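Suppose you are handed only two things: the residues of a chain and a line of SMILES describing nicotinamide-adenine-dinucleotide. What would the bound structure be? This form records exactly that question and the answer produced for it, so the two can be stored side by side and reused later without any lookup.

QUESTION INPUTS
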Amino acid sequence: MACDDNKPKIGIGLIGSGFMGRCHANAFGAVSGLFDLPARPVKSVLADATDEIAAAGARALGFARATADWRSLVADDAVRVVAITAPNVLHEPMALEAIAAGKAVYCEKPLSTTAASALKMTEAAEAAGVVTSVGFNFLRNPMIRLARDIVSSGEIGEVTGFRGRHAENYMADPRTPHSFRTDPQGGGALADIGSHIISMARHLLGPIAEVSADCRTIHSERPVSANSADRKPVAVDDMTHALLRFASGISGSIEANWAASGRTMDLSFEITGSRGAVAFSQERMNELLVYSGSGARAGYRRIEAGPSHPPYGRFCPAPGHHLGFNDLKVIEVAELIHAIMENGRCMPDFREAWEVQRTVEAMQTSSSTREWVSV
Ligand SMILES: NC(=O)c1ccc[n+]([C@@H]2O[C@H](COP(=O)([O-])OP(=O)(O)OC[C@H]3O[C@@H](n4cnc5c(N)ncnc54)[C@H](O)[C@@H]3O)[C@@H](O)[C@H]2O)c1
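ANSWER OUTPUT
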């Protein structure tokens, strides 16, 4: 039987073929088989830093063409979506050029290196009317949708507190070298992974109005590159603790820590309410813990992900078989295609990512002034 090829095609131009580039490419490849979309993404052009890397990436990831010149990818008529997975400092020039060419932009987080730059990108995208999406993929988890529903429905009563954390261990070893993640322009644990828990806090409980933060560098020097004996100082945080006051008046705290020995993906939170609580960790991303009951029956209950938690059923008809990290990216891509074809807004968009970035910056300011700072 011939395959249904009547759907419109959306050409994808992917910049970068590293960790996130592969993840984007595989999501664009898988999404049509899992979701009923109004259009079919087609892997058109892949750009990377050199011809060799771009050609190898295009071959491995199934793109029709490769280039070492991301500007030619943006200008390519076959490309309708520009997916940016290059280092943070390149996000602004790449996105602005794509917006000027009228392309939809799917950019990795953090949106840029400063809040001013993120706002410039946001305003350009809104003026041009292009769809934007930012890779806060953890928000796509069906268990997060459930947590949000439970909180907003009042099931746990009035919310009284939020405790959030994004802790990993990938920079715990002082021999781990510098990379774009330690670039003084927009690097650091707070920007890199703190942005994820800030986006989660906003997604669950709304805007954050004020912060008081302490940013700390644990390892003051790192090798300039892998296996190098040359070391240079680290100018960004390894660990940040912050107190938060949400616009709603709820108070809480977050920790961003990329040197957390023993933790691999603890993007976690606990939201307490007057009648119950919810708790989650990405290390057990197919579970939501919900506290309810009273007296001898009070306790945390574990809800396991299944087809009754959309869009889990798109991936598997049976509960308990588990989604994975890459599936979150597939969901993200499905929502992007819907937004492009149905002229909608894809959340989190550039404006939301700018809100996250200004929260990061308010925390950095608070840490240096030792004062509470309004976001
Ligand atoms: N959403 C998430 O969960 C998540 C996870 C990891 C990284 N990220 C974000 O993704 C982005 C990339 O991170 P990564 O871990 O994939 O990094 P990476 O180093 O693995 O990949 C970066 C890619 O960009 C390419 N590149 C560098 N300069 C380029 C240029 N001038 N033109 C074209 N390509 C160029 C590199 O060659 C490489 O292929 C960052 O913004 C990071 O914060 C997001």
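WHAT STANDS OUT: The chain has two domains: 9-137, 138-319+348-374. Residues 15-21, 47-49, 53, 70, 85-88, 90, 108-109, 135, 137, 192 surround nicotinamide-adenine-dinucleotide (CB under 6 Å).
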